[in-house]
């Protein structure tokens, strides 16, 4: 599979042609440390049978258009997640890729830009969606971060947001330990199936495979890795992605993959109801981006890393 590498003094990364996915991101921090915030599957170079290409290459970060499972596309997370993008432009520190969708698809083309910030450990990404007809589609981003198992090695700082819910019964993962459609408290406490509580911001090692929705997120999530001494932050425009899904893979993919030992945590800005817009509850407006055939829709977001100076509350 074709891939490209870009680098500067603050960051380097690979981009895979499949999915236009960023992989092997390394931030070179101001204290001299090099850290890798994103999870990567161990089986990238070992072909798996009967799995989608985005599962073969799971890890890193990529865009999903349309997001989740929809009537518009037979691919979970969209045609662009499982097919080859073409390189349109590249320099030492940036690149641009595009993919044409099949004839008859509501989506015409996607373009993705990735550029390393010149003065800090940060990656600026852009996404452009061209459609063949006016439509509303669920759209999302799919970064997957490392998920340490040691106590105190990881915590989430979710930023401002509205209510938080676990997945409804229809889409709760088979190996979830959390109760379905449970409301998460303001402090992160949520009921498990065994009747006990876990804190989703600090006790992820107690969880299984989970899908949790943060509604009305204001566009920022920070993950702290105290034992490694760094934090990583994802910033986006809340008008583009008003919600954020958390996919806890602890491990994940066991129900669909012959190589199920994947651990990571997806922090996924979305304009979608979980990953199934078709089961949006009655009375709730169906999520999705209003796309116009007359002009492309675009968004921009940033992934950054920093030295973690203080781990106290």
Summarize the structure.
Helix content is 3%, strand content 41%. With 313 residues, the protein is mostly beta strands.
Task: Provide key terms for this protein.
eight-stranded antiparallel β-sheet, 2 helices, 24 strands
Name the shape in a single word.
globular
The residue-averaged pLDDT reads 93
Order of helices and strands: EEEEHEHEEEEEEEEEEEEEEEEEEE
**Span from first to last CA?**
44 Å
Count the helices. How many?
A: 2
Structural classification? mainly beta
- Uncertain segments are none
Largest sheet: 8 strands, antiparallel
* Number of beta strands: 24
Estimate what percentage of residues fall within beta strands. Answer: 35-45%
Q: Calculate Rg over CA atoms.
A: 19 Å
The amount of helix comes to under 10%
């Amino acid at each position: 599979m074709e891939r490209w590498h870009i680098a500067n003094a603050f960051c380097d990364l690979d981009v895979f042609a499949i999915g236009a996915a960023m992989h092997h991101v390394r931030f070179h921090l101001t204290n001299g440390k090099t850290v890798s915030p994103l999870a990567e599957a161990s089986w990238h170079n070992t072909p798996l049978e009967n799995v989608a290409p985005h599962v073969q290459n799971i890890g890193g970060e990529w865009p999903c258009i349309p997001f989740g499972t929809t009537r518009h596309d037979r691919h979970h997370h969209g045609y662009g997640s499982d097919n080859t993008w073409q390189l349109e432009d590249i320099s030492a520190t940036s690149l641009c890729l595009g993919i044409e969708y099949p004839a008859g698809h509501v989506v015409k083309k996607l373009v993705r830009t990735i550029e390393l910030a010149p003065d800090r450990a940060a990656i600026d990404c852009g996404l452009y969606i061209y459609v063949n007809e006016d439509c509303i589609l669920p759209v999302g981003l799919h970064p997957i971060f490392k998920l340490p198992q040691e106590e105190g090695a990881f915590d989430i700082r979710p930023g401002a947001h509205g209510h938080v819910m676990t997945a409804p019964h229809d889409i709760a993962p088979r190996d979830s330990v959390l109760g379905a459609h449970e409301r998460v408290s303001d402090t992160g406490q949520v009921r498990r199936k065994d009747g006990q509580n876990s804190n989703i911001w600090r006790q992820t090692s107690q969880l299984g495979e989970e899908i949790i929705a943060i509604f009305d997120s204001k566009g920022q999530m920070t993950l702290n890795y105290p034992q490694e001494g760094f934090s990583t932050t994802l910033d986006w425009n809340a008008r583009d992605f008003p919600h954020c899904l958390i996919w806890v893979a602890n491990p994940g993919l066991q129900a669909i993959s012959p190589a199920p030992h994947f651990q990571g945590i997806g922090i996924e800005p979305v304009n979608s109801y979980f990953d199934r817009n078709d089961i949006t509850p009655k009375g709730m407006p169906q999520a999705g981006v209003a796309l116009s055939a007359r002009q492309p829709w675009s968004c921009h977001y940033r992934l950054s890393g920093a030295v973690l100076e203080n781990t106290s509350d």
